[in-house]
Amino acid sequence: MATGYYFAHRHILGIEQLSCEDIAHILSTADSFKEISARPIKKVPTLRGHTIINLFFEPSTRTRLSFEVAAKRMSADTFNISPSTSSTTKGETLADTARNISAMHPDIIIIRHACSGAPLLLSRNVQAAVINAGDGAHEHPSQGLLDMLTVKEHRGTLSGLKIAIVGDIAHSRVARSDIVGFTRMGSEVYVYGPSTLVPKGIDQLGAKVCTSLEEAVTDADVVMTLRIQRERQNDPLLPSLREYARHFGISRQVLSLAKPDALVMHPGPVNRGVELNPDVADGPQSVILDQVTNGVAVRMALLYLVMGNS
Amino acid sequence: MNATWRIVNGRIIDPVNSRDEIADLLVIDGRIAGPDQPVPAGVQEIDAAGCWVVPGLIDMHVHLREPGEEYKEDIHSGARAAASGGFTGVACMPNTKPVNDCAVVTAMILGRATDAAVRVYPVGAISQGSEGRQLAEFGEMKAAGVVAVTDDGHPVRDSQLMRRAMEYASDFGLTVISHSEETALSTGVMNEGPVSTRLGLKGIPTAAESIMVYREIALAEFTGARVHIAHVSTAMSLDLIRAAKARGVRVTAETAPHYFTLTDEAVIGYDTNTKMNPPLRSAADREAIRIALADGTLDAIATDHAPHSILEKELEFDAAANGVIGLETALPLTLALVRDKVIDARRLVELMAVNPAAILAVPGGGLSVGAAADLTLIDPEREWVYAADQVVSKSRNTPFLGWKLQGRAVLAMVGGRVRHTLLS
Question: Annotated catalytic, B304?
């Protein structure tokens, strides 16, 4: 890194708060940690004696596991708590929960919550560093970073690329983190989906809103699809998944419009045959499992950096 | 109790009597006296030099939380907050626990209000329990003292019920106040637009309000009844109201200071004291509201004073209750419009005193000889900070905490009794 740079973030609440230098530093740190996961003995003592709490208010398998693997490979002590939403209705607020956990002196709290802004609220009520593992439809910074790491590995750069994001932009925190991150690093992000799933003003985050799938995908370096749900809270978003697959899904034919070596990405879990045709999801251009591998490295880097190391 | 005063050297702004002049005002036995009446011996003098002397301000939209949620506010604490903000009368919404949907609750509120700092005008519910099904007993509530009816906070979904409410309310000379909201569209927590998208918060489109504003206009036009639109927040609603007024529909409307002061950008940071319903809107909406305050499309400024404790507000943005307090900041925020030359002083008095009194058909709104001496002294220049330890309301849920404000009520008099004063 350039002299004088240091990583100054106590919390990782979103990509929005990270500068280009921060992102580059996280990615290079993550890259240097990848080797640890390839060793026969996958453990370094870096965070020995540190307490990390996974506070997941929303069900999550892969993100929680990825953070836990990352923490354990760095020798931290990890604890998982998944407060049921019913316990919060019994009277304990997030702020109360935060103060209680804080009283046990953890070093890092990783939070997943259905409400946008909950990690910020948590960070104001605890001494520990807070890492956002996904809040509502707001941000999922570690996912955005692992997506950038994956693209950088395969393309060698994060600038001058065309990134197409297709699917449910409206409800996706991954979309927001990716739009902000990739545009900040000098690439262009094109978004496309049914109008019911493209939120107002997404262009003001830096995305280019497309009016056809072809416009989004043509000459793209990356084709990223997002998971689709038919309906949310009685909001009729789509008539059927079958129709979605036909008009908005990525098939071989659609993918052929992108650059020949375009990367196919998905934050998972994939609805096979809906947003991605199985032959695309499992095809040679898919880097979906690389994303998962890189997720561990990126999370190791975040844990390392918020503890004041650089 | 001495209710005889001579207020000297103030600028009397009294639109009803077409007065705007530096003059003295005499109050004898709690009533405004004529200039040629003899000054009684022992009269107390109030030096109003540099101040405006205006008819007592009336806030036609407050939530006093009593009965039922006295930990947030009660009639007395709310009335004290009102007086300190320069108000001499407030109209309290019926969404208490229990709902003010019958004469017994109305009488209870008025009983508690007899020795409150300001005049309290209860507003009754449109439907029993504000549940949107059966009409409440307007006649009984009117006899007990309500001045209008509304299901504020529980938007009337059923258009037939709203039609019948307007028709039936007109039989008792009551105005229907509409909280205009199409609830099928308003499932979000802030204005829908670029800011909600950025924050990942579910949006409420402007159409959710405007659709219902148009419904109320159509019903008022068809039935010939009066309707008052509460807390207007969108440019589209204002266009509808402006056009309706031009063709003679009996519609009036209010907005709240936060809508002409803030925009949805205030939500960045997830401060739950920026969460209210309707939500803070875009800069274009705010500009339209300012224009409508000046051109007469909007008739009144009302606070929608909605006290909540930290139990309702120290939460995730999605989970927090809607509403902010406003009684203590409404006047300085409106004075900012005068300084910005959006409106003049006379218009401020119309928006905050004359028109609310007229819409609710309650006394006040003018300084006519013989009227009860409800008046407010405003120092338009006085600078102050709205600090947490100065808040008079029981609750502190306001986005204006810590703001440096200019202009303040330095005295509020109700029926000749001084209920608030910063004068030495």
Answer: yes
